[in-house]
Structure formats: C-alpha cells, structure tokens
Amino acid sequence: MVNLNIIEEFACLTLDRPQALNALSFAILGEIRDALDEVARMSDVRALLITGAGSKAFCAGADIKELRHRDLVSQRRGAELGQAIFARLDRLPVASVALVNGYAFGGGLELALACTFRLCTPNAVFGLPEVKLGLIPGYGGTQRLPRLVGEGRALEMIMTGRSVKADEAERIGLVQRVVDADGLLAAGMAYARHFTCYSLPVLEFARRAVQRGMDLPIEQGLQLEAELSTLAYRTEDAEEGMRAFEEKRSPEFKDG
Ligand code: DAK
Question: Which of 121, 123, 124, 229 is the most buried (most CB within 10 A)?
Fold first, then answer.
C-alpha cells in the first residue's frame, strides 16, 4: 500500500491504494511510519518526495469506513498516532515535498501540510471536509493550516468544509507551484534540486530555525536563530562557501 523507492538522490514514497483514493487506513499509516523511519536512516538521500498512485487523488483522507464504531480511547489513540507520524515527517533530517496529484482531503491534506513544501497538478483540490462528517481534523490540520495560510482562511476551510482548487491554493500559499500533471515527479525532483544542492546540515539548521521558531515567541525564536546560525557558521561547508566567494569560484559543499 506504500511504496518507497530511491530515484537518483531522492526517496520517493507513493501511497498506493488508488481504489480507495489512497485513503489513510491505520495499516497505511503504519507503513508510512515505517517508511519514514527508513528514510531517516538513509545517509545518501537528499530529500523525500511524497505522492499518490493514480491520477485522481493524492489522498482522500482518513479511511472513513474504519473510523466508525471505535471506542473513544481507540479514537484518541488513533489521533495521537496520526499526529505522531506526521510530526516525524515534519522533523525528518531531510526536507520533504508533497506532489499533490488530485484530491488532498482531510488526513491527505494534513499529510501534505506536514511536508516542507507542496507542488500540485492543475486538477488538485484541497480541503478539510471533516465538518461534513460531524468531525474536525485530527492529524494536525487545525494547527498547521493556519500557520501556513493564516487564521481566517484556515477557519473558513475548516468550518465550512469548502475546498480550494490548484490556482487558489497557489495564490494563498498553500502550495509553492502548480505544475503539469505529466512529469510531476520530474518537476518535484527539479524543484528539490533548487535547495538540495546546498549543504544538508546547513539546510537542516535553516529549516529548524524557521519551523521551530514558528512555535516560539519572537525573543526565543531569535535566540534559536542565534544558536543555529552559529552552528551553521562552524561547519566546514560555511568555511568552503565563504572561501569560494573570495576566490570567485563555485563552492564544493561536502555536507559537513
Ligand atoms: N475513506 C475511505 N474510502 C474512501 C475515501 C475515504 N476518505 N474517499 C474515497 N473513498 C473510496 C470511496 O468509498 C470509493 O470506494 P467504493 O465505493 O468504490 O468501494 C472510492 O474511494 C472512490 O471514491 P468515489 O466513488 O467517492 O469517487 P468520486 O470521484 O465520486 O469522489 C471524492 C471523490 C474525493 C470527492 C469522494 O470520494 C469523497 O468525498 N471522499 C471523502 C473525502 C473526505 O471526506 N475526506 C476526509 C476524511 S475525514 C480522527 C482521525 C482523523 C480524522 C479525524 C479524527 N480521530 C482519530 C479522532 C480525519 C478525518 C478525515 O480525514
């Protein structure tokens, strides 16, 4: 149900349950968790790309058929499990790019939100329609969506269940780019190369400063920035980057 492949310098995770629009059963969630653990152990991977099998859906959300008839304790554990898996994605040592090829609803949008970046095809549709089922998002949507698009837009999507098409998603910053459906993977790889050509530890410091800083008051965020920018300065790659500037040549980063 989940395929993990290495393509050149990238790990590529595909949700492969197209007959149910790649809906997140608990089994698929477990496979995503195992795949993320595997990616975290891969020393030669420079970014993770995530997409859905088929042309119709990235992921239509939590498996609604599985969500019914569960006791409250299991339901609470289910929410915590999904949240913990998406937090792992958020905190992977490498950046991730969601390649959204169709519907990204509910848990599917929450999966994309936990990625560092999002690209989508022109037929992509984004939504948190849980309210239509008498539910609210349970895998991080109420927290990550407002941080990305602002409180008003997030509340509107969550409280009305309104979905957003690709062009609006790009306009409100929900996705970085809309790209052709043909060659989505190639577009994802080309996009990732814009940043993976730099020093991986330095990129990780930058990502941590921005992402963790979003959760902190600005004074603490600035402290975090001072610590992480000093750590970046101490790397050999920083020395190489500054030396290359003075010598008027391209730097050769070694991820150290
Ligand atoms: N779950 C299970 N099956 C799904 C599914 C889903 N989310 N979405 C689609 N499918 C299945 C359909 O049942 C259908 O299966 P068969 O009937 O053929 O067996 C197949 O995929 C094809 O779907 P459709 O026939 O419906 O395809 P259409 O093109 O007509 O419509 C659609 C596409 C995406 C508009 C429609 O399928 C749809 O509205 N799907 C549901 C989208 C949705 O509501 N997603 C949000 C799910 S709720 C929590 C944990 C998590 C959550 C909340 C709480 N706790 C633990 C507390 C999060 C909840 C969600 O994500």
Answer: 124
